[in-house]
Predict the structure of guanylate cyclase.
Amino acid sequence: MERCWAEDMTERPDFSQIKMFIRKFNKEGSTSILDNLLSRMEQYANNLEKLVEERTQAYLEEKRKAENLLYQILPHSVAEQLKRGETVQAEAFDSVTIYFSDIVGFTSMSAESTPMQVVTLLNDLYTCFDAIIDNYDVYKVETIGDAYMVVSGLPVRNGKLHAREVARMSLALLEAVKMFKIRHRQNDQLRLRIGIHTGKSHH
């Protein structure tokens, strides 16, 4: 029994070994109170092990969801630095191109629509936009209401290609808007207002 409190945990016997040792010295057989106690302890240990496994799996699943969210809202390189516990330092970029757009008349359209209709409209539109920009060397910075902001040449430098990538992407978005259907206003045609600028940036 002295092995049960050994400082080195690897030298301690497990429940099955303890049960075997005690039964060896117990004359009353398997129906004794001690046997019942050992059986309950063994069952408790098994249940505890199962609970720990379930909690571990739940933790890993939540961790995976958190990491996926991190990669969705931040550039991959920044997310990797944060995962490693590193401080993200500001970086200067000599030349990038920024795209910014909004919907013409969105405020008045929203006033004439229900909140759910507005949410559905933006979700449909940005789902369409997101699928298009995946074909270009650009990074979506953020969306605020009907505003859509994209950049090229940052966080991954692409030489002098950033202006071309944003220009081509813009033309593709304009074409998509022409075909876009508003669920609750089928006869209305969306119009996209776009601004593009090239210059230095700090990230």
Summary: The chain has a mean pLDDT of 84. The domain at 92-202 is CATH 3.30.70.1230 (Alpha-Beta Plaits). Residues 33-73 form the longest helix (41 residues).
